[in-house]
Amino acid sequence: MVQFSFLRFLVLCYSLLPLLAEDEKKFPWKCPTTFQCGKFGELQFPFTNTSNLGCGLPIMHCGDGNQFKTVHSPKTIYRLESIDGINSVSVTDHRLKKMLKYRNCTAFTYDLKAALPPNSSMLSFQIEMKNNITLLRCKHALANSTKYIYHISCNDSEIYYPSQNFETGKDNMVENECSTLELPISSSPPVDNSTDIYTFLHAEFRMLISVSDNCLKCQENGTQCDVHNFHCTSSKEGADPRRSKLAVDIILKTGIIYMF
Ligand SMILES: *[C@@H]1O[C@H](CO)[C@@H](O)[C@H](O)[C@H]1NC(C)=O
Ligand SMILES: *[C@@H]1O[C@H](CO)[C@@H](O)[C@H](O)[C@H]1NC(C)=O
Ligand SMILES: *[C@@H]1O[C@H](CO)[C@@H](O)[C@H](O)[C@H]1NC(C)=O
Ligand SMILES: *[C@@H]1O[C@H](CO)[C@@H](O)[C@H](O)[C@H]1NC(C)=O
Ligand SMILES: *[C@@H]1O[C@H](CO)[C@@H](O)[C@H](O)[C@H]1NC(C)=O
Ligand SMILES: *[C@@H]1O[C@H](CO)[C@@H](O)[C@H](O)[C@H]1NC(C)=O
Ligand SMILES: *[C@@H]1O[C@H](CO)[C@@H](O)[C@H](O)[C@H]1NC(C)=O
Ligand SMILES: *[C@@H]1O[C@H](CO)[C@@H](O)[C@H](O)[C@H]1NC(C)=O
């Protein structure tokens, strides 16, 4: 079994080699300090454009005139609404927006946090919603459903929006396999039973981008951290020790996954 896994691991290493060569082309040694991005003007780290992947969070369509600027994650696409500061942007989650528009109740089970771009050694992501409501999602229906402003059954889940001051007991939560989910709303509550929850909820929120300590250290030295944050970029060209380290790292990580 071990031998078989190891063979697969070796085969994988070989199949990764061309990919690594591609990566080297995509991730240049030097990251541009600034770039132009349509109506957002001149941007800098932690953002980057699609020509310089690995230099930050890539914004798509920076060069295409009037097209919406977007940020992609494995689970959704975000439309960039505004840049609110160096480490904060307002975005609309395209998938959630579509579900709300088509009144698809899956919207009420949509985990905004799980759709964020994955944290890396360079950047990490968080959500800030000035106005939000907390929905309860349970496997089983709760008693006293009149105490909830909103109740809907959706794909094997019972979704509730509790009326204010109504506490669902902890035992009740565990027993019915409930979890909570925060979603953004366009204005603050109160909500009553005449509110159309599909239009009351919306898909825009603030995405906070934290730069890792290692990357910040680079910036203090007037350099910039780039792909996978192994080293700060330097102004002088030269042999790049990161490349072999990056290759080893990818192969090791993938190898480990394959071995278990
Ligand atoms: C990205 O920015 C660099 C530096 O400003 C520029 O040379 C390149 O053309 C830009 N690429 C796109 C796709 O906008
Ligand atoms: C609702 O959205 C989910 C997730 O995007 C999708 O899988 C499902 O087919 C949609 N349902 C309807 C009725 O459109
Ligand atoms: C990403 O990092 C932030 C801290 O910057 C943390 O709050 C969040 O839980 C992390 N996300 C994941 C999926 O680990
Ligand atoms: C949701 O709203 C509450 C109350 O206004 C706030 O404390 C909380 O931080 C908000 N959640 C997020 C993720 O911003
Ligand atoms: C439901 O409401 C009734 C009357 O208000 C109360 O006696 C009962 O304990 C409640 N049940 C639960 C599970 O909260
Ligand atoms: C519906 O529920 C099933 C089983 O719980 C799950 O596998 C599926 O992904 C759910 N579909 C959506 C669109 O949430
Ligand atoms: C909405 O709430 C009002 C007052 O709390 C109540 O009289 C009315 O019956 C409720 N309507 C529905 C559809 O639940
Ligand atoms: C920053 O510069 C100092 C002095 O040149 C050097 O010792 C240090 O290693 C540099 N830090 C990083 C993160 O490159």
TrEMBL record:
Decide whether keyword Signal is in the record.
yes
An example molecular function term from Gene Ontology annotations: ATP binding
Q: Which domain of life is it from?
A: Eukaryota
Q: Which UniProt keywords apply?
A: ATP-binding, Nucleotide-binding, Signal
- Tell me the first and last residues of the signal peptide: 1-21
Q: Which PANTHER family match?
A: LEAF RUST 10 DISEASE-RESISTANCE LOCUS RECEPTOR-LIKE PROTEIN KINASE-LIKE 1.4, TYROSINE KINASE FAMILY PROTEIN
User: What's the protein here called?
Assistant: Uncharacterized protein
Species of origin reads Flemingia macrophylla
Q: Lineage from the top down?
A: Eukaryota, Viridiplantae, Streptophyta, Embryophyta, Tracheophyta
